[in-house]
Amino acid sequence: DMINDTSVAQASASIALASDAASEAVFEHDVVRNLICRQARYPDIATPQDWYMALAYTVRDRMLARWAESVKNYALHHVKVACYLSAEFLIGPQLGCNLLNLGLEEEAREAMDSLGQDLDALLAIEEEPGLGNGGLGRLAACYLDSLASLEIPAIGYGIRYEFGIFDQDIVDGWQVERTDKWLKMGTPWEIIRPDIHYYVSFGGYTRMWNDEQGRLRVEWVPGRQVKGVAYDVPVQGYRVNTCNVLRLWKSEAVESFDFDDFNAGDYYEAVEEKVVSETLSKVLYPNDEPESGKRLRLAQQYFFVSCALQDMLRLMEVSHTPVERFADRFAAQLNDTHPSIAVAELMRLLIDERLLSWEDAWSITQRTFAYTNHTLLPEALETWSLPLMQSMLPRLVEIIFEINQRFLDEVRRALPGDEGSVARMSLIDEQGDKKVRMAHLATVGSHKVNGVAALHSDLLKQTILRDFAAMFPSRFLNVTNGVTPRRFIMQSNPGLARLLDDTLGEKWRTDLTRLDALADHADDATLQEAWRAVRRENKAKLAARIGNITGIAVPPEMMFDIQVKRIHEYKRQHLNALHIISLYQRLRRDPTLDVAPRCFIFGGKAAPGYDMAKLMIRLISGIAEVVNQDPATRDRLKVVFYPDFNVKNGHIIYPAADLSEQISTAGKEASGTGNMKFMMNGALTIGTLDGANVEIREQAGADNFFLFGMTAQQVAALQQSGYRPGHYLEANEALREALDEIAQGRFSRGDKAMFRPLLDNLLNADPFLVLADFADYAACQQRVSEAWRDEKRWARMSIINTARSGAFSSDRAIKEYCENIWQTRAVKIDLAAP
Ligand code: AZC
User: Fold this and answer.
1) Residue 675 and residue 693: Cα distance in Å, rounded?
2) Ligand 1, residues at Cβ distance < 6 Å
3) Residue 2: which pLDDT band, with cuts at 50, 70 and 90?
4) 40, 101, 556, 816: which could form a disulfide with 236 (CB 3.0–4.6 Å)?
């Protein structure tokens, strides 16, 4: 009723708006109130963790009022909602970005100050939810930030892993994994919704029957069921009232398990089933490429996707919208193939449970889904063994078969007699053990398919999805990745943000392309001096942190040359390492050698089962151990392996980089997003023509980018013609010496066997052409050294890199998704003043 409605709106607005400049006292009061009412502590005995929680709840309250208002508006206006389906959301620490987006940072700082607490210290104790591996998961988080900031109705759907990506320790130079404990102290950022839950079936069999209307129906009689419960994380837009939601599913055992119906056998087996149910959302698979055949991984994928789709159908129901209009109300993006079983699951829900015809269901499905591919690496393309899938998801396999049959009929009509194309495009790989090709399922079930950088999208059409691109050319497009400037400039580099405000005004904060105007001032001596001052401070901060963590003293005047990302052969950390060794050798030989003093910083996790990547970490540690204590090079060369690279550590690392290493073998890195974070913060890039590097160089200008290496075409041609790493070894003495020094045990405390696998691999196979690109890389690094000597030139190049980074805002990317794929529009959320 009216009176009630008004009072609710007023209450909500007053909670949300309690953060006006005039209400610092209210904020402070709310913190103390939360300290008592949520932590049951008075200020005099509260721990820093208590204060953190009290502050976080105070911030959260203001978001929840906005969230309630956003939800009400979406429902009221029957708007289309973008649903981002992703097995990973690497959202990073929450308090700082929520304060920033709400515009509450100063207020919070002052309030905590008068309570005798230091805001920065409280920010530092937050454990980040590591619900992702790397680029793909972090991209999903940047996109949620942009969606909310652009006021687009959106829901992120994923998994609430109890254990996220492991924490990394370095012990004796080796990576040691420790389980992540992000939930140990509880998290203030989630709202549990026990009322929002769904049942997900596994195993069993299907049977056909005729219903009362004489329709032939299929029933899936599952072997067991799992319950998915919604855990909601609010996603606050920047300086707008929009607050969207990230809905993560936690698996639980169903309350009442009927042994007879489910043939569970006996009591103990049933108990075991319960344990298995709760295992589903227990842990994130720590690989940045799929681990084949892992039953639990497939179960996780189906689990969260089924919960998400059931949730979307429920939202249709509560807003009294007929299911036929599903695709008008939802756009669902498949973040890689991990959620691609959604294509078959939506068909199942529409046909078996909502009784739609195949044709109607298929039309809805194709109009709803779109698929983003994130990799061309053949070993990373997800397939599932058909027998495994049949035993776990029998009904879904039937539907996949039907999709395939109808699709291949279409192929045969288009390409009569071309059974080669039929076999290549089939959703089932029939060679050897039969497998379901998830990328094919995603492509066939979507109306749009995109790659994540221009080069990658082109290669996608030329290689793994070539037949599909030929048959459905208008289905394919590119959306180059982007990153959020809120977290990666404003939050993590406040000094730069202030300088940008002073130079350009504040409009760049909501329209990053405005940074462009900075280029006009690139030679301005005053700006250059201020620019250098900001960078010096950022570097001093990182140097201090490195000192604390590793004990290595790094002078902030050195060039900070940084490579942080997952450790992988295709990313070629070992190319960087070989160059450092050869530089070290040159410096020892000629102590007067005129090269820029440099600190090489590495960070990144290796998949626990990826021995070669772990050996690469050991090599870098070994080089650091030798180089850092050699008096001959002490002031000129430092090497650091920064342990446990994650979002939080990224905040201090990106703003301190002079040089960003983006040196993957051309054609292998789909986009990269770290490259963009570095660029925004004023680092220059040394890189190959790979992924988004190509566009970064276009934007920055060739003069402001250090390019080296083979092109993707040259890489393909060389590999085709029979690559011989030995050939490059013979031609390059520095390279021979570097490899030889490793072989002699120089970086393994005399152990000549330790790096044998790495050396053998480079000498005999070198699948990522490290040796072929070495000479050009070393020459390019020489140019970097020379450029560094000219302070003014370097400052100019740095300023121009930031100036041209506007194109790499995730706001730009999200606008492209909205316009070209989702057809979703912004909805303004107003808060009635109390
Ligand atoms: C990554 C790609 O390797 C990277 O190039 C890209 O920038 C990023 O996705 C976002 O598009 N892929 C992954 O991280 N993949 C997984 C499974 O983690």
Assistant:
1) 7
2) 133-136, 139, 288, 374-375, 452, 481, 669-673, 691
3) very low
4) 101
Site to probe by mutation for ligand 1, drawn from 297, 372, 374, 669 as the one with most ligand atoms within 8 Å of Cβ, is 374
SS3 706: strand
* Amino acid at position 110, single letter: E
Identify whether 565 is a catalytic site residue: yes
Please compute, for residue 1, the number of CA atoms within 13 A of its CA located in the half-sphere on the CB side.
2
Q: Per CATH, is 493-808 categorized as 3.40.190.100?
A: no
Pick the CATH number of 81-91+132-168+191-484+810-834 from 3.40.50.2000, 3.10.310.10, 3.10.105.10, 3.30.1440.10: 3.40.50.2000
CA of 133 from ligand 1 middle (Å) equals: 9
Which of 519, 659, 501 is CA-nearest to residue 580? Answer: 659
Q: In this predicted model, what pLDDT tens digit does every residue of 600-650 receive, in sequence order?
A: 999 999 999 999 999 999 999 999 999 999 999 988 999 999 999 999 999
**How many whole angstroms from 685 Cα to the centroid of ligand 1?**
19
| pLDDT at 6 > cutoff 80 | no
Atom of ligand 1 nearest to the CA of 672: 7
Residue 1 has pLDDT above 50, yes or no: no
Same fold, 81-91+132-168+191-484+810-834 and 493-808: yes
Atom of ligand 1 at shortest distance to CA of 372? 11
CA–CA separation, 383 vs 386, rounded Å?
A: 9
CA distance 631 to 297: 50
Active site (annotated) includes residue 448: no
Q: Does residue 311 have a pLDDT over 60?
A: yes
User: DSSP secondary structure string, 219-242?
Assistant: EEE-SEEEEEEEEEEEEE-TTSS-
- Asked whether 233 and 67 are in contact (CB, 8 A), the reply is no
- Strand, coil or helix: what is 541? helix
| Sign (positive or negative) of CA dihedral 389, 390, 391, 393 | positive
Contact 391, 222 (CB under 8 A): no
Domain residue ranges of the chain, discontinuous segments joined by +: 1-77+93-127, 81-91+132-168+191-484+810-834, 493-808
Whole-complex ipTM: 0.98
CA dist 122 and 95 (Å) reads 9
Q: How far is the CA of 375 from the centre of ligand 1 (A)?
A: 7
Closest among 605, 781, 616, 597 to 685, alpha carbons compared: 781
Annotated catalytic residue, options 365, 375, 665, 673: 673
CB 633 within 8 A of CB 96: no
Which pLDDT does position 419 carry in this prediction? 97
Burial label, 712 (beta-carbon count in 10 A; 0-12, 13-18, 19+): buried
Largest Cα–Cα distance in the chain? 92
254-269 exposure pattern, b = at least 16 Cβ within 10 A, e = fewer: beebeeeebebeeeee
CB 552 within 8 A of CB 638: yes
Tally of CB atoms within 10 A around 276: 16
d(CA 827, CA 813): 18
- pLDDT, averaged across the chain: 95
Asked if 702 and 720 count as a contact pair (C-beta separation under 8 A), the reply is no
Q: Is the pLDDT of residue 692 over 90?
A: yes
The residue type of 589 is R
- Asked if 374 is an active-site residue, the reply is yes
| pLDDT tens digits, 152-162 | 999 999 999 99
CA distance 756 to 16: 61
Active-site residue flag, 66: no
3-state SS assignment for residue 317: helix
Give distance in angstroms: CA of 125 to centre of ligand 1.
28
Query: From the CA of 86, how far away is ligand 1's center (Å)?
Result: 12
Q: Per DSSP, what are the bridge partners of residue 252?
A: 227
Phi, psi torsion values for 693, nearest 5 degrees: -55, -40
**For residue 135, what are its two tokens?**
């680029």
For residues 421-430, give the mean pLDDT: 98
